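retry 2 of 3: previous attempt timed out while embedding SN-glycerol-3-phosphate. Reduced batch size to 1 and resubmitted. Inputs unchanged:
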Amino acid sequence: MKFFVDTAEIADIRELNDLGMVDGVTTNPSLILKSGRDILEVTKEICDIVSGPVSAEVIATEADAMIAEGRKLAAIAPNIAVKLPLTWDGLKACKVLTGEGHMVNVTLCFSANQALIAAKAGATFISPFIGRLDDINLDGMDLIADIRTIYDNYGFETQILAASIRSVNHVLESARIGADVMTAPPEVIRKLAAHPLTDKGLETFLKDAAKAGIKIV
Ligand code: G3P
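retry 2 succeeded.
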């Protein structure tokens, strides 16, 4: 499973990238707002750090304007994936931009039919939003499973990018189902390493090491 980090915070991206945890980055206008940075400037900086796909989202809502914005974003670096909303105009822009050889991440996907039609439009990535479905008492994981089945039934090459991941269980379930990629905030990726029995076991070992007077360097 590929790990993308869902942030525009440079320090987090650097730390996780140095650990080999970053196969790509996803951003959106809300994350750009949170970073307080200019979109073109921060996206360029991210692309200089990370070699995998870096999603940068358009803000236009009409196909021609989305295409113009997508081309401008794609010109930042060869590893840009233009992020487009799952609307009819977004699909039109997807078709054109992928036809020009750009990677496209179709975002704000909340149904399997939306994922099906994004694959038909040639999306490189489809981003189903798990947490936001959970927020309205639906099971986001059912959506990931349905998309996996449909894409496998017909051999679609669009990669399932499990997004709006809020917990380590979202990561685990996405991996079980076979999502190609997951994107999560840095804090969720860090939590993947945590287990209370690890902490407890380490505490015991350190106490015993002190009693034994163990010194290694
Ligand atoms: O990857 C999409 C993500 O940024 C949205 O997450 O938590 O705002 O639903 P959230």
